[in-house]
Amino acid sequence: MRRAESDLFSPYSTLGVVCSGARPCFRITVANHLRSGSLIVPIDNFVYHYTASKLRLVAISDPLPAIVSCVIATPSCIYAAAGSVICILPTCRHIQKTIPLQEPVKFMELIGNLMIVVDVKNDVIVLDLETHEKMTHIEGSEDFEITAIVHPSTYINKLLLGAKDGRMRILNFKTCRVVYEFQSVIPSPVTVLSQTPAIDVIGVGHANGQIRVLNIREDEPICQFKHDAAITAIGFRNDGEPYMTSGDALGNLAVWDLEKRQLVGKITNVHKDTITGLIFVPGEPIMISSSSDNSLRTWILDGIDGMPRQLVILEGHSAGVSTLAFSSKSQVVSAGFDGSVRKHDINLMTMRQKLGTAGLMSKKDAKKKNLPEEKIRLEPITEIAIGWQREAVWDNALCRHQDSLTVTTWTTRKDKKGTHNLLHERFKREGRLRSASATAICLSTCGNFGFIGYSTGHLDQYNIQSGRFIRTFTEEKEEKEVPSGKNGNKVMEMGTAHSEPISGLVFSGNCSSELISAGKDGVLRFWDIRTGKKKNQIKSKSSKQIEKIVACQANSLIAMACSEPGHNDSIVLIDCLTKRAVRVFNKIPAKKITALCFSSDGQWILAADNERFIRIFDISTSRMVDMILFGKPCIGMAFNPTGEFLSTLHEDERAIFIWANKSQFATRISLRSYPYDFIRKWENLDEDLDIEVPRVVIDSDGDDDDIHDDVIFEGPSMDAAHLTYSGLPPSRWENLPEIGLIKERNKPIEPPRKTKQVPFFLAASATMTGFEFDAPKLENESEQRKRINAKRNLLELETNFTQKLKKAETKFEFLAVFDSIKSMSVSSIDYEIRSLPHSALPKFLQMLLEMLKERRDFDIVQSLMASAVKIHRSELWEEQDDEDSKALTRILEEIEIEQEKVWSPFENLLGQNATLIQWVKNALL
Q1: 760-776 burial string, b = 16+ CB within 10 Å, else e?
Q2: Could you tell me which residues come within 8 angstroms of residue 63 by beta carbon, excluding any fewer than 6 positions away?
Q3: What would be the CATH architecture of the domain defined by 21-140?
Q4: With bands split at pLDDT 50, 70 and 90, how would you rate the model's confidence at 714?
Q5: Which of 87, 281, 382, 394 has its CA 20 to 30 A from that of 636?
Q6: Is the pLDDT of residue 767 over 70?
Q7: Domain range summary for the chain, segments of one domain joined by +
C-alpha cells in the first residue's frame, strides 16, 4: 500500500498477508547434495519466500518500486516484475540490479538462459540472463491481446501465446515470426496455458469454463472438460499418474483422469476466491494451491481414488480486516469481514493463530441438528475489547458483530471462542426492539464485567465468568408499559441510558469504578458500576453528535470525535477528574473521523479520516506534529501497551500494518508543527520539506521542549544559563565510582583448575603436583637485564590522556581533553583516573572546574569527580607544603564555590516543583 514518509513512525512489518492475486512460482535448490523446494510469492511490492514442505516464511525482500505483477525464479536467482522494471534478487532479500523497460510487464517466462517478457502493449522482449541485455524486441498487434503464455517442451526458440479472443499462436522469438496459428479455436479468452508431462501436449483453460488438452503438433484436442466458472489454474501430476487438476474463479478444485477422460472428483469452495495457481512438486504426489483469498494450501494425492488430501494450511483474512486490539506487548488480535478472528505476533512473523469463526452454536452441535454452517454463523465482528487481568481463568475478550444484538466472548489464552453469547431477554421478547443492534462494548478494568450499549440507548452489564445479566443503567427510574410481542400483554420496562444510540463505552485511566458512555444525543454520562447510578454528565451546547470515544490509560483524559451537520468533524478532550473540556481540535479539515487513538504515554492523540490522512496532535502544546498520507483510508489503529508500535487497518486491506515509533528508538527526533488546515498531496511530497513551519525536538528521555518558530534545536544546550546533561546512557557514567566494587564482585570464586594434559607441542616437565612449563632459555645475562629494564620503563610511562592533561593550559584545551575521556568506556576511564600521578591531580580538577563553568555534561562531571575523590582520597587528605598540594587545595576551594553557584538555583527549583506536583496530585480540585 502506498504511503508517505512520517516524522514519527517508520514501517516495521505487515501481518496477516500470505499471498495475493498474482501467480506464485516454484523453484528447486540443491545445497550439500540435498534438494529443497521453495515457493516464491509476490505480495504488493514485496516478494515472499516460503518453504514448500511446511509453508514456513523464510525471507521477505526489500520494497520494490511498484506492485509486483509476476515472478519467475532459477535455482540461484529471483526475477520480479514491478511495473516497468524487472528486479533481480539473488537471495529474495536485497535487490542486486534492476532492468528498466518501456512498459509495465504482464508475463515472464524462462527458457534456458533467456527470459521472455510480455508487456501491456503485447510486445515480446527477449533478455539474456547473464548480461541482462535486450536481445530481441517483437512489437505486438492490437488485434491479438496476449492473455497467457507458455514454452512448449523441446520446442527450441518457440513460445505459445493465447489471446483474449480465443486464438493461439506459436511464435519463434529468434526469427521474430509467427510459426503457426491454430485453427481449433474456442471463442472465449484463453486464461491458462500449462505444459503437460507429455511432449506436444498443452492444457488450455478458457474464461467460459472449458478445458482442452490440446496436441499442438497436430492441432487437435485430445479431450475436453467443463467447469461452471472461468478456469484460472491448471496443474498436471508428474509422478507417473495421468491426473490433471483444475481450479476456477469460484475457488472450486477438480481432479480429472486423462486416460479415462472423466472427472475423478470435485471439491467445492476449497478457496473463498479465485484459485491463482496449482503447482505440483516434481516427482511427488504433492500439490500447492494458491488463491487470491489470501491462503496457501498443500495437498497430497495419496488416496486410492486419486483425490487430494489437505496437509498444510497457511491463511489470513480472506476479506478486509475490520478491527484489532493488542492482547499483550507483541500480540495483536484482529477480526475480518470474513467472520474470522486471528492472532498475530509482531516479533514472530510465522506465528498465525486462528481463534475461530463466531456462531450461534458450535459446529459439532450444528452437525447433530443437521444445520448448515451458514445458518449458525454470526455477522462479521466490528469491535473487539480485550482485558488481560482475567485471561488465565475465564474469557477475556468481547466481540461486537455488525448489525447484530448478540455479543460473543472469546479467550486469548486458549485461542478460541468463549462460552457465552450475551443477549438480553428484552430483545427476544419485544418485537419493536428486534431491529436494534449492539453499537458499543467495553470490559471493566478488573476483567469481571462486560458492558454493552445498543442502538436503542440501552446499556447493560454482564458478568463475564458466568454470562449472567447484572443490571441495566438508566437515566430515569421510571417504568414504562410496553406491549409484548406474542400475546399483546403489557410488561414493565426500565428506561434507557441515552435517548439515542450509544456510540462508545470506556473506563478512564485513573478510575476503575466509573463507566463513561457517549451517545448520538451529544451527551457524555458517568456511571458508578457498583450502584448503577449516574454520577455526572456533560452535554454539548450545539447539535453535535458523539461518533467515537477513546480513553487514555496513562491519565484521566478521554477523546471524543464529534460531528455536526454542515461542519467537519472535531476532536474534544475531556478531563474525567474535573469533567471539563481541556483541548478542542475543531479546525482540522476532516469530513469524517474514522479512527481515534491515544499514544501509550498519553503524549499524542491520533486521528484518522476518510480522506486517507492520519494526523498526530501533541496534547500538551495543541500542535499538529505529524501527518501521514496513505493510499487508502485508515479505519482502525491501536498502540501496543508499551508504545513501541502502532498498528493500523485500512479500507479493503487484509493486512495489519505495523509502524515503529521513532521516539522510542531514536535519540532525538526533529518534528514540525503543521497548521491544522495543512493538506499533504502525493505530487508535492518533496515540496513539503521546504515549507516554513515551526519545529520541535523530542528528546529520547521524554522531556517536553518548548516550540520555537523557525528554530531547530541541534544540541541539548538551549541557553548559556541552563545546566545540561551529556545525553549519554546512564551505563556510560553511573557505575564509574563503584567500578572497583563491581569488578571485585565479578571475580571468579574458584581458582583456575590445573590442566591434566597439555598439548604435545608445549615443553613441560613432570613434577610432584602436575606439570610445569619449561622456561625458555636466555642466550646471556645482558639480554635478561635489557628485558627487566624495559618492563621498568613501561611501569613509569604516562598514559596519552595524562600527557594531554599536563600540557593543557587554556579553557579550550581542557574541553578537548574532557571530550577525549568522555568517549572512553567505563573501564578505560577508571584506569585513566587510577593512573593519574599526584602532579596531574590539579590539572584533572581544573578540567572539571572548566566544565562546571561551561555548565555542560553535568552528570559526567559529577561522576568523574566522585570517582577521583574516592580513588585519590589518601592524597587529598595529606597535608604537604609542596606546590602541587597548594594548587590542589586552591582548585578544590574553587570547585566548591562553583558547584554551589551552579546547582543551588536548580536544587531550590526542583524542590518547589516536587512540592507543587505532590499538592496537585493530592488536592481535590
Answers
A1: eeeeeeeeeeeeeeeee
A2: 45, 46
A3: 7 Propeller (2.130)
A4: very low
A5: 394
A6: no
A7: 21-140, 730-746+806-911
